[in-house]
Design a protein that fits this description.
The chain has three domains: about 120 residues, Rossmann fold (3-Layer(aba) Sandwich); about 70 residues, Dna Ligase, domain 1 (2-Layer Sandwich); about 160 residues, D-amino Acid Aminotransferase, Chain A, domain 1. It is about 35% helix and about 20% strand. It contains 15 helices and 18 strands. The strands form three sheets. Strands 11, 12, 13, 14, 15, 16, 17 and 18 form an eight-stranded mixed β-sheet that branches. The protein has a six-stranded parallel β-sheet with strand order 1-4-3-2-5-6. A hairpin with a 6-residue loop joins β12 and β13.
Length: about 400
């Protein structure tokens, strides 16, 4: 297991010396694990910064070292990154944030961090147009890209008189810290009284001016689609289109559990227009939801980082973390498009979803088992790197227990 340098203890030791240039991955969940494997399999040394919630990526054989990622404000974390780079001679290493808070930090301190690292996200004046959903929807309106009805009330009184097309969701414009609301992504509300109560609760977690009310488009996970891309100044260099077949929970998902690549121009076209208009550089997953009432694909969000199912892209022929590595080093990249029909599964969560849906009579055993017949990319297990897969369930149980007894976000 990779070394974890923390105030309490070290779990192991660095297994080998680093090469002249490597990658520093902030975050250690299953998204980060995919990035660690992508780079590590090519002989690129990877260090993992481990936060309070996850350690999975640091257990990979491809993680040369795991270090404690200190909790604190953005300024202190930026100072930590610069000090770490100076002390360990990480000049020119690639800095790869894998969660929203680290992306925002890296973007806001882009000028400073670029003196030490190759930064893989754009500066804040560029990134904020996709990171802040209020700005994202304003751009979508200008480009004629379909999106759900959305309002940003400034006060509770304004919210009380807002004409809402219930059911709606209450969500933050940006996810900068972990709490009950950001962990859930959004809260569903079905009437005015529930909306006001949830609003009061949300205001204890995030600033009121960060809250949005948005129409809940009907449909389960099978109505959600993504266009994933690597871009340079708005030009799409590599891309994959995928459909979220299942999610957890099924009707209002926090994350994907079953994803399949596909060919759907109606998803790709508006996403390409958006990224071109923003002159975006880096990784982006543009999320859409198909409205069964009119067949339109409505933009929901843009993730300017590795996303949950990004390892499926590699199976489909587009290895995004490695392509990003090439991009920041100025290497040539051949245009690549993921082939359709490849599948990805996050098994423990998918099984939990299936059990819940079968109990409710919304999913049969036959319907669940049939798609499993054939090759499927595991979200976590890999034959050349089995330890994270073996540790997945114990670590998940530990994380859930820690949240339950420690009062953390659930």
């Amino acid at each position: 297991m990779a070394a974890l340098a923390s105030p309490a203890a070290e779990l192991g030791k660095t297994r080998h010396r680093t090469a002249s240039v490597g990658a520093l991955v902030t975050g250690a969940d299953y998204r980060a694990l995919g990035a660690v494997r992508s780079l590590g399999r090519r002989g690129i040394p990877v260090w993992v910064l481990i936060g309070a919630e996850h350690v999975l990526a640091a257990t990979s054989r491809y993680a040369a070292r795991g270090l404690h990622w200190p909790h604190g404000d953005e300024h202190s974390q930026a100072e930590f990154l610069m000090k770490l780079g100076a002390e360990h001679n990480l000049d020119g290493w690639v800095l790869l944030p894998t969660d929203d808070a680290a992306v925002a930090l890296t973007s806001r301190y882009h000028d400073v961090l670029s003196k030490q690292y190759h930064v893989t996200v754009p500066p804040w004046e560029e990134l904020r147009w996709v990171f802040d959903k209020r700005l994202l929807y304003s751009v979508a309106r200008e480009l004629g890209i379909a999106h759900p009805w959305t309002a940003c009330p400034h006060t509770r009184r304004e919210l009380a008189s807002l004409p809402c097309p219930f059911p709606v969701v209450l969500k933050p414009a940006m996810r900068l810290e972990l709490n009950r609301l950001t962990a859930s992504k959004a809260w569903r509300v079905d009437d005015r009284q529930a909306l006001l109560a949830r609003y009061d609760e949300a205001c204890t977690l995030v600033s009121p001016d960060m809250l949005m009310v948005q129409e809940l488009i009907p449909g389960w996970g099978e109505t959600q689609f993504s266009f994933a891309a690597l871009c340079r100044k708005g030009e799409v260099l590599a891309s994959v289109v995928a459909g979220r077949r299942r999610q957890y929970p099924m009707d209002f998902g926090r994350f994907s559990t079953w994803v399949e690549t596909m060919d759907e121009p109606r998803v790709a076209e508006p996403a390409i227009r958006l990224l071109a208009a923003l002159q975006f550089t880096g990784l982006a997953e543009v999320e859409f939801k198909k409205d069964p009432r009119d067949g339109q694909y409505n933009i929901l969000d843009v993730n300017p980082r590795v996303w949950g199912w990004h390892t499926l892209s590699s199976r489909a022929g587009v290895d995004f973390p490695y392509l990003l590595w090439l991009l920041v080093h100025g290497q040539p990249i051949s245009e690549a498009h993921g082939r359709p029909g490849e599948r990805w599964m996050r098994m423990p969560m998918d099984l939990a979803m299936a059990f819940h849906e079968m109990r409710r009579g919304r999913l049969s055993l036959r319907e669940y088992v049939k798609p499993l017949l054939g090759p499927v990319e595991s979200a976590i297990f890999a034959w050349d790197d089995p330890l994270p897969g073996l540790l997945e369930m114990p670590l998940l149980a530990w994380t859930l227990a820690k949240r339950a007894f420690g009062g953390g976000a659930v």
